[in-house]
Amino acid sequence: MNIHKVIIPVAGWGTRSLPATKNIPKEMLPVYNKPVVQYVVEEAIASGLNDVCFITNRDKNVIEDHFDHNLQLEAVLERAGKTQQLEVIRRVATMINCISIRQKQQLGLGHAVLCAKEVMSGDEAFAVMVGDDLMFGMNPGIKQLIDVAQSERLSVIGVMEVPQEHVSRYGIISGTEISPGIYQVEKLVEKPKIDEAPSRLAIVGRYVLSSSIFKHLESIAPGHGGEIQLTDALQLQANTQGLLAVKIHGMRFDTGDWAEYLTANIYFALQEEELRDDLIRHLRPLLPFG
Ligand code: G1P
User: Fold this and answer.
1) How many domains in the chain?
2) How far is the CA of 171 from the centre of ligand 1 (A)?
3) Beta-carbon contacts of residue 221 (< 8 Å; ≥ 6 apart)
């Protein structure tokens, strides 16, 4: 099972991040020195996914532009002898094969994935990565799913344990643990009420899907919030072909949540040796225990 395509839906409004996202896609907000979506794309590349299909809308062209050449800027940097910066922006321009599909109506995550049906050839399995969920660990989050999908030849979704009071923000699964951290999924509920959640295992925006998902997406009615939910199509896959969930090892930042977005900025800046000491010096007096 060769998996080299990934769908990254980026057509959402980003209302949680207003007013910052009034005219800037939420995926282009910077985390330290790169836009959010570049981290997602770099996780994809590190996992062997070089064909990236963005599901966009009319206001999101700047995302594709980010992964293309800016010849004017390249010429300016070249003339100024700024070779390091030149290398950085050329690397971004050449890192992926970029495919872009317009989602003309915002009908949900399931609908966004369905928009890519025509560019996913035949029986090929593919990945889906939510464009504002950042993940970090020794092994890229999506790679952890690809490894299991390839050995078990089934669709696989990424999950993480969340506090009980947060279950209503996610798709929640229940199932049988067939080996450590791997579950045969039985039930999926999109954004359940706290007392109706079948577990605390939340779907975290990383999926490896077989092409049968498209026929399920075409057959379902709108679900939670009146949207075509990927979670509901996954329930049909679980009932028929079978579906696995893998507990992803690593850290996750939901960049649509201000506290997590700001923590991600500090986390990545702290990894930078040249910035680390200065940043700590500036932060210390701001903290109550500083
Ligand atoms: C989507 C999915 C949900 C999942 C979440 C992870 O929800 O529908 O099942 O838990 O992504 O980020 P959204 O955040 O788009 O409302």
Assistant:
1) 1
2) 6
3) none
Span from the CA of 203 to the centroid of ligand 1 (angstroms): 7
Which pLDDT score is estimated for 122?
Answer: 79
User: Is 27 close to ligand 1, i.e. is its CB under 6 Å away?
Assistant: no
For ligand 1, mutation pick of 128, 130, 201 (most atoms within 8 Å of CB): 130
* C-alpha span between 96 and 180 (Å, rounded): 34
Residue among 113, 160, 172 nearest 134 (CA): 160
Residue numbers of the domain that contains 38: 5-285
Q: How many residues does the chain have?
A: 290
What single-letter DSSP state applies at residue 43? H
In a domain, 74, yes or no: yes
Amino acid sitting at position 243: L
Summarised one tens digit per residue, pLDDT across range 188-218 is 999 999 999 999 999 999 999 999 999 999 9
Is pLDDT above 80 for 290?
no
CA 269 to chain CA centroid, nearest Å = 21
Q: For residues 141 and 11, what is the distance between their CA atoms, to the nearest angstrom?
A: 22
Say how far apart CA 127 and CA 5 lie, in whole Å.
Answer: 6
Domain of residue 69, CATH code: 3.90.550.10
Structure tokens, 99: 């495919």
